[in-house]
Amino acid sequence: MLFNSWTFAVFLPLVLLLHHAWRRAWWQVGVLTIASLVFYGWHTPWLVPLLAASTGLNAWAAQALMDSRTSPGARRVVFAGALAFNLGALAFFKYAGLIIGTFWNAASSSWVASIPLPVGISFYTFQGISLVVESWRAGPAGFPGLEPPRGPREAAWFHARVWFFKAFFPQLIAGPIVKAGEFFHQIGPKGWANVDWGGATRKLVLGFFLKMVVADNLKEATSLLSWPQFAEVPRGSLLLLLYGFSFRIFADFAGYSLIAQGLARLFGYELPLNFLHPYLAPSLTDFWRRWHLSLSGWLREYLYIPLGGNRRGEARTYVNLFLVMFLGGLWHGAAWSYAAWGVAHGVGLAIERWTGAGRGDPASWPRWRRFAGWLVTFHVVSLLWLLFQLPDIRHAWAFVRCLATNGGGILPQSAFVIGLFGLPVVLHHAWGATESWRERWPAPWRLRVEALAYGIMLFLLLVNSGSSGDFIYFQF
Amino acid sequence: MLRPGTRHALAILATAASLSVAWSWASGRPGVAAEFGEYNQAANRIRIEAYLARPAAPSNVLVGTSLSGRLLASYFAGTPLADMASLGLDGSGPLVGIDALRRRKDLPETVWVETYLMGRASTPNDRSLVEGMDSPGTRLAMALPLFQASRRPSSIAYSALKRRREGGSLAPTWTTNAAASLPGPPSPPSPVDDGVEEQWRRILQDLRQRQVRVVFFDMPSGEVQRPGPRTAPDLADKLGLEFGIHRVDLREAWMARGRVPRYTDGRHLDAASARETARLLAEASP
Q1: Whether the predicted pLDDT of A107 surpasses 60
Q2: Which candidate in A447, A464, A470 is best for mutational testing of the B interface (most B CBs within 10 A)?
Q3: What is the ipTM for the molecules in this complex?
Q4: Which site from A3, A68, A251, A264 is most exposed, i.e. has the minimal number of CB atoms within 10 Å?
Q5: B114 is a domain residue
Q6: Structural domain harbouring B257
Q7: Nearest-CA neighbor of A253 among A288, A291, A224, A308?
């Protein structure tokens, strides 16, 4: 089910009313878990057993890892087995085609290539791994919100909460990726008074606005960014297309994350922040502190730091950085172009580390350095998004060649669409850049300006939405 | 007493509601609604909703691709086809236009079918248009004009800019070119996808039963000014013969006057040539 579908417009109020009908944690967790499974299996019911298998196994592993009766040897086996299961499921459903297609001939991979990618598998698998790792680290002490069960009733409640954590529909399909330690302590009875209506409304309005007004209206204009359509497009328009796609991918994904956060707040839950005005970043290092924070946080905590992070010497740090970015790129999709995208970012980060260009707090940099850094970072990031839209690296290279060699000029229609619907992304970042200045305004004025800004977005959402479509990150 | 967060949420809703009421009034004033969409989907929504929202079906409707989409309904003013409605759809074909016009209980007297892409089966773009017509959004737009595509602020701004840009160019832009009036070499008929011929046959039988007259027409498309003879009958020839349907070749009509229309991108007519083409179509009305 899509957040921007009519079905969801009926589903949400029903679930909200049912959830708040009885202020008992087990009732609310039950309602949300069942609703999440309905949400997930609405169009493809066969996906539910897969999610159930993943959840059931992770719940069992978490319980075993917290059980004081489990011997150290058995704990190691359970831990390794659970990790292997999670990574194996991801490898089978997502990467089998790529691996077999790369190392064997295409014919033998034909049946593998026909395995459909279960939507959201990358996200809920990472949450499963987070649960297993947290349970391994915590041991019999448990962690806040998830203590080892003592008795069958507590065991049932333990499993119910794990199912809820894995399936909670706002973040199930495209994140934000929630770490176990961030979520379980929030589970409890929720009343209408727990709902942050102001925060939820702001998140939902901005999220739906970014998705339905910005990304969906940019979709058709940026479809020219495909091979061989762009070959005849004049240089000025190619540059605009690049910016347009950059704006679209941000609006689409940040929009989804904000909607997820807003929906979670309606049920009294807080999901982690995923975007922090990423196109303001004056370096790639800073960009990764602002883009898809839940993924970069997950990779840092469960991959980069366990690999040694930056504590094992300079050479090992570069290797770790490269490995994390390579795998982070591959996480996005089963194609070498995604790996190339991750590697390119990794190389950029390594260069910044080596030259010291990304070091320190950018707020303390001279203004010229921040501007120059921003200009370079935005264009590097935008150029690298080409690999998302043009998975064949030769086509991405052809685009760069066309950018250099095609005739000048701009197509007025696409310039109008990209200019108009890209503007909100620029304004959103300008809003972020002026935050400290706005904080000095008197509170009533600030609230009035905010109400006006969000009111305008809601109005445009009603009258100026584009044709609804899938979210880009669903394919990951 | 409401909490500050709740008051803030209500202030956002109240602002949006006030803006919607104001916009409903402002965009409903004569001459404000958008005639053009800033991209294909928006343009198609404007045409389809304008057709479906009419109180009664017009006498004439044209269905076709973006080529005939250039023939705006307003270009037929003052001609025998003055009440023409256009379902020339960008990135789509005549079959979707037929689907749209059959969604009304009342039908037009005459349907003008553009022959280009007549033989093409449904594409993903066609399916997305049909899904759009079936969606609750279209039903909502029919009930509340505020939600119609022609009231989108971005389409209204785009239409105003486009009208301003083309305002001065309605003077004749066509040229005379003796070489262009020579017929091109013989060409094979356009391919017909599986099942499409049968689909047309069913449609034409249905329209005939409901006493709707059908006329086929060929649009100038810029690639060949005067096509040569077809090496075999095309789909429109076959169906025309079978159902006794008249066919108007607007490319011939231009050449007969010794004129070559002008195009914005080599394929789509500019405003002045489109207006003239609309006049030629009206003159050729059987």
Answers
A1: no
A2: A464
A3: 0.88
A4: A68
A5: yes
A6: 32-283
A7: A291
